[in-house]
Specification:
Shape of chain B: globular
Structural class of chain A: mainly alpha
Structural class of chain B: mainly alpha
Distance between the termini of chain A: 64 Å
Number of helices of chain B: 10
CATH topology of the largest domain in chain A: Rossmann fold
Oligomer: heterodimer
Strand content of chain A: 5-15%
Largest sheet of chain B: none
Number of strands of chain A: 7
């Protein structure tokens, strides 16, 4: 066994806890998790069965933690994990798992399979079995500040332009603001309308906010890769900035994995609860809606469906706000059969969209068929979502199938139809 | 050893050994699993109606959204054979008498004819599940020796019990002894195979339910 491999076995051993042991013991190989996974339903290839994706971890569990497994290991009856196998598993753990968590919702014995994959990725990261795309995105986030290599001057430029477009100056590094606004590189580069939308809404609601020049990026590739050390470095930037600027809230952007990273993983990464609250932008908007601040000047007329991003809804717990908000702005909103926590993934979450090998891209296009069916069955020309990553992945899918479906961001759609700002009547929330 | 001696052995020392291994094995395995502990979640929890470990323990007994249509054999077959096994084991008159002799606890059973029908349905459902395991790509792909073995270890007690009651194939005494032996094999292997899910599924559902409940998601 090579040194690195020994480290893998040790790391894999280290990620196994009581839930994982209980999950492995409970699995009856019923295969129902496959029916919940878009990589299986769209390809029919049984290797994509979710529980199979953690098979090497199961072997480590059996060999290291069970009575019979230890006996088998002692007499040389069990096969230790080897490098080739983990190489082979890389595709199953990263390319073909978006951490969407649908499998965890259907397992009849109750296994939280996505949790097992998350922990397994930690072992894969240590042993270096990580796709280049995610590895370099993580490296860029740690070294430069964001997964796309975006530096502050470029961000400042986008913020200035958004300020000019809206007439609302976007404060930077302002101490004592209510909200520290986080962004995702994807939004800064591809969907700067989001920033404008936010500026308009904050201004209208009379809420003070700021952007931190050293902590603008909300996404955390360290988590997707499975490296908690790197993830901690990335999340600490936000925590430090929020505490330095003494904000009450940190506002997560639409981006799903960013929300997961800061809201649910963050405190566990730094090892203590936060001194501020993390709020998803849709939670804030829904609160404003309930208080009557979010008034629309008109509505969006085209029939549309909603794509609920996995990490915000199913895995993140923002269950009710999205539909309430879309009903506020859309006249012809059509609820789909598999909605809210049952929605199907865009196919590119969990870091998968950063993997640009030919096979990974072909697979993503293939599994997009499920979204294609949802759009076609609803018979709509517009789909609204609230995650920049979902959006770009789905745009690629729509291009691939030459569909002319329009994709819109929810926050941006709301901003477009918001009552115009009257500076005199703008007042702080009670 | 003649058939009477065989029966005497399986009813006496055989049963003691099997029950002993079953109990010690189950306790050991539960200890092995649940003493591993888990990390405390430091993120501020969110509350939501219907989201808790206990909710999930019960909710997962029902087919989740859209799943019945996707895997009808798994769900319908699964219900019939699990309920069937429970009815046979806990409401069959001879089984109640056995439990009463071991523990002193007793309750009314169901008529033998009813148990006979339940037994045939259970076997039919188990055969359908076996065919499904062979036919369904994902199930077949996941299947190892242990899956076929666990199926056989569960099916044999039902089959031999039914054959004994119906006086088929072998003399009653021999078939009854085989029936008891097959149950003893089942008891012995249960803690060390996937059959152990009869214990751990409660823990698994609870862990999943409570972890997601912290995020405000009823799972």
């Amino acid at each position: 066994m090579s040194a690195s491999l020994d480290k893998v076995a040790q790391t894999l051993k280290g990620v196994i806890d009581a839930p994982i042991a209980s999950y492995f013991e409970s699995c009856v190989h019923c295969g129902l998790c496959a029916e919940a996974c878009l990589f299986y339903t769209e390809t029919g290839d049984p290797k994509y069965t979710p529980i199979h994706k953690v098979e090497p971890l199961r072997r480590v569990y059996e060999q290291e933690f069970t009575l019979l497994g230890r006996l088998k290991k002692l007499v040389g009856l069990s096969k230790p994990i080897n490098d080739d196998e983990l190489d082979q598993w890389q595709e199953l753990v990263y390319d073909s798992c978006t951490l969407c968590g649908r499998c965890s919702l259907v397992c009849p014995v109750g296994n939280d399979i996505v949790y097992m994959i998350r922990r397994f990725r930690e072992g894969m990261a240590v042993s270096g079995h990580v796709p280049d795309g995610i590895r370099s995105a993580t490296k860029r986030t740690v070294e430069i500040g964001g997964p796309m290599g975006l530096k502050w001057p470029a961000v400042a430029n986008v913020l200035r332009k958004a300020g000019e477009a809206t007439g609302v100056t976007i404060p930077v590094d302002q101490e004592g603001a209510d909200y520290l606004v986080l962004l995702s590189s994807m939004e800064i580069v591809n969907y700067s309308e989001y920033i404008e939308a936010l500026a308009r809404i904050f201004n209208k609601a009379g809420i003070s906010f700021t952007v931190a020049s050293d902590a603008f990026e909300a996404t955390n590739a360290g988590i997707q890769i499975g490296s908690s050390d790197l993830a901690k470095v990335i999340v600490s930037r936000i925590v430090d900035a929020a505490e330095r600027l003494k904000v009450k809230y940190v506002l997560s952007p639409e981006c799903g994995h960013a929300y997961m990273a800061i809201r649910w993983e963050g405190p566990n990464l730094i090892g203590r609860p936060f001194t501020f609250e993390v709020v998803h932008v849709l939670e804030l908007l829904d609160e404003l809606r309930q208080k009557g601040v979010l008034k629309m000047k008109d509505t969006f007329k085209d029939p549309l469906i909603l794509h609920d991003p996995c990490q915000i809804v199913r895995r993140g717990g923002v269950l009710q706000a999205p539909e309430a908000l879309i009903r506020q702005v859309a006249e012809n909103y059509i609820p789909i059969a598999d909605q809210q926590k049952w929605n199907w993934c865009c196919g590119g979450g969990g870091g998968a969209s950063a993997i640009h090998t030919e096979e990974a891209e072909a697979l993503r296009a293939r599994v997009f068929q499920i979204k294609k069916r949802q759009i076609e069955e609803a018979g709509v020309g517009t789909m609204v979502t609230f995650c920049a990553n979902c959006r770009i992945v789905m745009e690629e899918g729509l291009d691939h199938y030459e569909m002319n479906t329009k994709l819109l961001g929810l926050t941006e759609l709301l901003a477009e139809h918001l009552e115009p700002v009257d500076v005199n009547s703008a007042s702080a929330l009670p | 050893m003649n058939e009477l001696q065989f029966l005497t052995w399986v009813r006496g020392p055989g049963l003691d050994i099997a029950v002993g291994i079953f109990l010690l094995g189950a306790v050991w395995r539960l200890f092995e699993i649940y003493t591993l502990g888990r990390r405390k979640d430091l993120a501020a929890p969110r509350r939501a109606a219907g989201a808790s470990g206990l909710h999930t323990v019960f909710r997962r007994s029902l087919p989740p959204h859209g799943m019945l249509k996707r895997a009808p054999v798994s769900y319908i077959g699964g219900y019939i054979f699990h309920i069937g096994l429970a009815v046979i084991v806990f409401l069959g008159a001879p089984h109640i008498m056995l439990i009463a002799s071991l523990t002193g606890l007793s309750w009314p059973g169901l008529p033998a004819q009813f148990i006979g029908v339940a037994t045939v349905m259970t076997m039919a459902a188990m055969l359908a599940m076996l065919v499904d395991r062979i036919n369904k790509p994902a199930k077949r792909f996941l299947s190892t020796f242990e899956d076929w073995f666990a199926w056989a270890a569960t099916f044999l007690p039902v089959l031999t019990g039914w054959l004994a009651v119906q006086h088929l194939l072998l003399p009653y005494t021999t078939m009854l002894a085989l029936h008891i032996l097959s149950v003893e094999i089942l008891l012995i292997v249960l803690p060390f195979t996937k059959l152990f899910h009869v214990f751990t599924l409660f823990g698994s559902r609870w862990y999943n339910g409570s972890a997601n409940a912290r995020k405000g998601v009823p799972v």
